[in-house]
Amino acid sequence: MSGRAVAVTGLGLVTPAGFGAAATWEHFLGGGPTARTDPWLAGLNVDFSCPVDEYDAAGLLGGRLARRLDRFAQLAVLAAREAVADARLDPAQWDGTRVGVVLGVSANSVQSYRAEYARLEQGRADQVSPLMLPRSIPNMAAGEVSLDLGALGPSLVTSTACASGTTALALACDLVRAGTCDLVLAGGTDSPRFPMVATAFDRLGALSRRGHDPAGASRPFDADRDGFVLGEGAGVLVLERAEHARARGVRPRAHLAGHGSAADGYHFTAPHPDGAGLARALGTALADAGLAPYEIGHVNAHGTGTALNDVAEAAALRQVFLRPPPVTANKSVIGHTMGAAGAIEAALTVLALQNRLIPPTANLDRMDERIELDVVTKVPRPLALPAAVSVSCGFGGQNAAVVLTAA
Question: What CA–CA distances, in Å, run from 206 to 11, 47, 299, 366?
């Protein structure tokens, strides 16, 4: 492993599988999907999603803050608070100028736009909230976390479509490596389960229409897959200089050892059929980590369950690994959380390394014969090697990968 590895000292998760990292992990070990009929999508061709269970925003955040924040920012603040507590950090005691925030966002502010635009269309312009813009601009995910926790270093948002969360981890890693920050709260957040988003993805042919069986709709690598399922959530990891963590007496959960990014340059929505860009991103991440492909014991796949992505991703993994290590696809359980996906999946990869267990992929009943991967199904499987990769892809030919190693 490269000496440039960065410590992961805290995790925070708010997902359809549970409120908090521990609850989310326990649900994943059981492998049960979370997709269900969604009243927010009633009347659409696709009327199901993977929602976060309802929570008392006012009770958790305070009424004033809850009213100010769009849902995607609420999720980010809640996940960041958990990550900070998990890392045994006290914002009242840290040097905030040495603490950064980097969050990936993709769909962001759909909730606020929808509500306020309805007022405008109804001729009630004088009732459009003055909080409309502060609620909705994507940088407010990071901005509100910075405000909430007193993080006074760089406060940034990455937007590389569905690779945004992984890109945020890569940028945060570089801020720590460069000495710009002692620690960075890094991850992603999104809440895209709204009628226009669902309709737009459906029109693209990207969403599953398995309305008769929502729980079975998200089925990465399965021969009967027909698209992804919208999800929502947030994942935040505390990335910290190893020396800084040692000085605090904190043992890391894992290390972020390397990262890589590459563009397909092929199509505005479809992945390169040979997975060329993803293979390059993976190669760069492994080289950055100082690890060979045979030293990787697990791949947390992008695994959307779309016809093109799964085949292209399998091709990329076979290019890099020849015989890829055991694979899991978290989207089978919680759907596609867009800008949060890479961060949530990286956090689950950290938990897999800590627990030496690979959680199963849901709904994989009959492998697509074009996909030659060893996918973990039904029950968790022991993780044999202390290193894993988490990969993400997105519209525009975005590809990103991170290498994580056991502490």
Answer: 30, 14, 23, 20
Q: Which of 9-18, 134-143, 276-285 is predicted least confidently?
A: 134-143
Q: Which residue has the tokens 């972020």?
A: 256
Selecting among 50, 162, 181, 393, the annotated active-site residue is 162
Q: What is the rounded CA–CA span in Å between residue 5 and residue 8?
A: 10
Nearest alpha carbon to residue 53 among 20, 98, 92: 20
Residue 255 is a catalytic residue: no
Say whether 162 is catalytic.
yes
Per-residue CA distances from 360 to 72, 328, 388 (Å): 27, 6, 15
392 bridge partner residues: 400
Task: For the chain, report the end-to-end CA distance as a whole number of angstroms.
Answer: 11
* Active-site residue (options: 27, 272, 336, 393): 336
Q: Does pTM surpass 0.90?
A: yes
**What sign does the dihedral 192-197-198-200 (CA atoms) show?**
negative
pLDDT per residue over 205-245, tens digit each?
A: 999 999 999 999 999 999 999 999 999 999 999 999 999 99
From the candidates 27, 272, 298, 302, give the one annotated as an active-site residue: 302
